[in-house]
C-alpha cells in the first residue's frame, strides 16, 4: 500500500493520497477536474481492483516470486496461495490462459480510447494513473507481450509513459 509523507503528515492509500493532494495543492494541475472526475476515478478504481489486478496477479505471480529476495519468497508464496485459494502450480498452469484472456478485460478501456486520448479526456486524470499503475506493474514484472503492438491500450500506455518527462520509462521492464 502506498503511503505519502507530506512534511510529516502520513496519508495511506492511493485514492486518499490523490484526494489529499487535490486539496493541499490547489495551484497544481487537478487530478480530478471536479466531482465528476472523482466519481469516474472511483469507478475506474473498482474496475482496476476487481478485474485488472486479479488478472495481473495470476499472470505475473511466478515472475514476481522469481524477482523477490530469497527471504521474502516463502511469505509471498504462502500469503498469495492463501489469498488466491490455489497452489502456485495450479496458478502457473492457468497463466497462459489468463494471458490469452487479458486483452478482453481491457475492452472497456479500448472502447473509450476510440473517442479520446486519455481516460480523463484530452489530458490524463487520476483515473488514468489508476489503470496505468496496474499496467506498469505488469510491464515491470512480466511484460506486456500479451497485448498487440497496435492495440489502442498500448498507444494510451505509451502516452502515459511519456508523461512527466517520461518518468514511467525510467523503470526497467521485464
TrEMBL record:
Superkingdom field: Bacteria
Annotated ranges, domain GST N-terminal: 1-29
SUPFAM superfamilies for the chain: GST C-terminal domain-like (SSF47616), Thioredoxin-like (SSF52833)
Protein known as: Beta-aryl ether cleaving enzyme, lignin degradation protein
InterPro entries referenced in this protein's UniProt entry, alphabetically: Glutathione-S-Trfase_C_sf (IPR036282), Glutathione_S-Trfase_N (IPR004045), GST_UstS-like_C (IPR054416), Thioredoxin-like_sf (IPR036249)
UniProt cross-references to Pfam families, sorted A to Z: GST_C_7
Amino acid at each position: 500500500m502506498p503511503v505519502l509523507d507530506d512534511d510529516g503528515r502520513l496519508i495511506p492509500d492511493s485514492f486518499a493520497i490523490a484526494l489529499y493532494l487535490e486539496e493541499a495543492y490547489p495551484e497544481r494541475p487537478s487530478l480530478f477536474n471536479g466531482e465528476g472526475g472523482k466519481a469516474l476515478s472511483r469507478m475506474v478504481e473498482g474496475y482496476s481492483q476487481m478485474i485488472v489486478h486479479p488478472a495481473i496477479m495470476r499472470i505475473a505471480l511466478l515472475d514476481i516470486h522469481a524477482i523477490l529476495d530469497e527471504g521474502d519468497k516463502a511469505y509471498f508464496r504462502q500469503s498469495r496461495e492463501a489469498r488466491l485459494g490455489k497452489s502456485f502450480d495450479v496458478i502457473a498452469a492457468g497463466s497462459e490462459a489468463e494471458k490469452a484472456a487479458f486483452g478482453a478485460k481491457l475492452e472497456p478501456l479500448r472502447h473509450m480510447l476510440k473517442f479520446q486520448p486519455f481516460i480523463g479526456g484530452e489530458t490524463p486524470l487520476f483515473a488514468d494513473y489508476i489503470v496505468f499503475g496496474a499496467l506498469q506493474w505488469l510491464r515491470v514484472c512480466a511484460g506486456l507481450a500479451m497485448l498487440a503492438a497496435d492495440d489502442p491500450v498500448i498507444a494510451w500506455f505509451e502516452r502515459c509513459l511519456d508523461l512527466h518527462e517520461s518518468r514511467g520509462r525510467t523503470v526497467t521492464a521485464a
